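Subject: complex prediction, re-run

Hi both,

The earlier run crashed halfway through, so I resubmitted it with identical inputs.
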Amino acid sequence: MAKEYLTVKEIVGPLVLVDEVSGVKYEELVELELPDGEIRRGKVLEVNKKLALVQLFEGSSGVNIFGSRVKFLGKGVELGVSTDLLGRVFDGLGRPIDGGPRIIPEKRLDINGNPINPYARDYPSEFIQTGISAIDGLNTLVRGQKLPIFSGSGLPHPQIAAQVARQAKVVGKEEEFAVVFGAMGITFEESDYFISDFRRTGAIDRAVLFMNLADDPAIERISTPRMACTAAEFLAFEKDMHVLIILSDMTNYCEALREISAARKEVPGRRGYPGYLYTDLSSMYERAGRIKGRKGSITMMPILTMPEDDKTHPIPDLTGYITEGQIILSRQLHKKGLYPPIDVLPSLSRLKDKGIGKGKTREDHSDVFNQLFAAYARGKEAQELAVILGEAALSETDKLFFSFADRFEGEYIAQGENEDRTIEETLDLGWKLLSMLPVEELKRIRPEYIEKYLKK
Amino acid sequence: MEQGTIIKVSGPLVVAEGMNEAKMYDVVRVSEKRLIGEVIELRGDQASIQVYEETGGLGPGEPVFSTGEPLSVELGPGLIRSIYDGIQRPLNVIREEVGDYITRGVDVPALNREKKWAFQPSSLKAGDEVSAGDILGTVQETPTVVHKILVPPGLQGVVEEIKGGEFTVEETVARIKTDSRVVEVNMLQRWPVRKERPYREKISPDIPLITGQRVVDAFFPVAKGGTACVPGPFGSGKTVLQHALAKWCDAQIIIYCGCGERGNEMTDVLMEFPELDDPRTGDKLINRTVMVANTSNMPVAAREASIYTAITIAEYFRDMGYSVALMADSTSRWAEAMREMSGRLEEMPGEEGYPAYLPTRAAQFYERAGRVKCLGSDSREGALSVIGAVSPPGGDLSDPVVQATLKVVQVFWSLEDWLAYERHFPAINWLSSYSLYIDNLEEYFRKEVAEDWADMRKGALKILQQEAELKEIARLVGVDALSPQDRLTLDTAKSLREDFLHQNAFHEVDTYTSFAKQYRMLRAIILFHNQAQKAFQEGMEFKKLASLPVKEEIARMKYIPEDKIQTFDQLEEKVKAQMMDN
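This time it finished cleanly. Structure:
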């Protein structure tokens, strides 16, 4: 029987200070019982002699200094895992909320996990076809990659993430896959969109959902993505599945982290976010990957809404430094009515070079990709120039680039929400658009490929 | 052994009492799990300890053991090809012992204790006088690296015995009699990471570190023994540039330090380097490389140490007389680790929450680079070049880490994301970057590259500078309103950018360009420019110039293989001929 303490001394925000404790460990799981029998959970943030600082996951409203009983459980926050997780819906702390039975765990895992030894990692190089040209052709996703979507409020990131989850496959292979979805502070509508999309396509049977919605306790969100990562690691590296984790919305997660940091009166870094935000984010993002000698993989797609569409805000900024690229959505394209409104110029997949080319996609992929980018960039520049000087002032070549950029947006980037393009279709479409331009402008493509693929 | 008791745990910071004998920066073992930590603050008998491993599950009352030694690295044969974490634990051995995830309390020696190395004694014999830095003998560590076994710093005396044969790093290879005693010397040295290794004197760096990257070598070269920094927002290609430099620069030893960066990047190096050939020796690149990897999800305190671990290993090879290049990616993560510890210590923060001693620490680190006369009687020279990536938030160069770095480094390669969006790689801005080594290196360039190299370089930079101004004007009045001369300048600048500065790291030929080819490429562009200027005076129209077929050949000259460099003669002839025809 664990000791119960009645020595709560202070309550500040989500933090509770307990005095006169002994034998308490850092990061230990805590249960706090209210006089009416309600149980709140939390973890130890700091121990200093006889004082333990506890962070409550469900927040501190209704907690009283004199009536609360605190119990230290002698273990960290854990998730019971088994393959029965598939097809189930949990709250942000891993408790079932779909009315189904309790999970009988195969084992219990600490949700913080351990860092993958860099020496044990296998380099992600298997091309995932998402059927979206702007991703496959220009920002190629590979298995084991972490590729976030930088979105803004009101942009269709749920649709894109759901389309990726629905269509993603490795061409020519039938393997066991699973989707782990971690929702942090998103609205009921957004979460309902995912759940019903998963239901519609039958993907729900292969999905594990951890839901912390906007009206759920904010502090609980700190654990939600870690629950998702722990479930994913188990499915991928012990059950040989290829797992896609979707985390939405990381901005809410970071705000919860800031709330705790402020309550602890820590020295703030940029915009009030704690100085360890980078380390904290990486402890989740870096759990994606492949491990040598294991069949499964974890591909991660975190979604975050950039406050005021500002890419230099600490959350997208630090995320971009950790993840292997980013897909940035553009409000301008969205307003033009284009779907998916992927802003391809600042978007990037760092791992694409290992995932494309001969034997993976097609030999000409890398050159076509470079050329499309350069041409689109030049076209955009011409369009900007035309705004100032008028279209007539452009040179003949620049006019070509001008209309190339338009067609590129309308035909290459834009596609249907249920349109699943093969990589060949995407590449051929690229060549079709490039054929608008004079051959001598195609400097980024090797002559032999121009010979072979360019149809005038 | 003295033993203290934990009284506080807060993240990677542990405070212990009863630590009367602890010294600053001593290594301690925390709790029965024997986690490794370092003393970073002392108050009375209380010591603040930064712990290099996760501290979950620790609590007050648990013991802390001191070792009485500062954080040190092991130096000797076996370093090359290794991959270490921030406190020099070999990651491959950790994987063998505990599996694919790094768990806590793993204690493995940095250098293999069982492996035997063939020690070849130098010409020294019994009775010879030796002092620190003298070469006792050599070990052929990899096909490319001869590991020199040196008399350790601080030791001076007379050789009593020196023997060749197969030894482990701990077995005695020589006995040296000093004034007071006989010292048995083995092939293993220990050195505290926060202390610079001694050398005889620093000398001015006047040889370039040849990297094969055109924008670096031609425009903003770094000297052997120099320092450079690469700041840039994410996605601007810092890591690709660091990898390209690690692959192709003509240093004899490469130390690659992944400090708080992505795990997959280290895997990339680990998987690629054993495959790639060194263009100079023909041997595999991995055979001259040491890696230190403390990825972003590994404990933050060890990240702080990783930079020092890496540079101490680098200094050790420099002391053998090698040219060593250290790539540190990224020093911002190192500074952040410092900030995190500083915050936990409740120190008064400086700018952006960074500790006030950040500029001092950065300067101390970069000053460990340099070209030196090593200890030892053969007065050999070694060089340690340091190339540090910086990741400023939002690409904002007013970031304290960037500013602290710029104060001490001599070369600044400014990576910009808008160049990266245009897929102009390496995305080094040719207008804002600089190299302070240009004057030092001028003589080398004149002798080794060409007499007119320096002038050509200046000319090319001037054209690019003019382009920036002309573009402003063109934006207002339109390109057609410019004079043919100005349009030519714009055209040549474009050619310089696209045909010379742009370089594809993933193209088999373009990834590396020798100085000879760089010279010919630049000369071809400048020749075209000069010829065109003449042609204008004789009344040629700009339109015609733009449609000359030789332009396309200039655009493709970067793909001319190194062994077909004579093709440039024909190219130059064509430029002249086509210009004449019009």
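The first strand of chain B starts at residue 3 and ends at 10.

- K.
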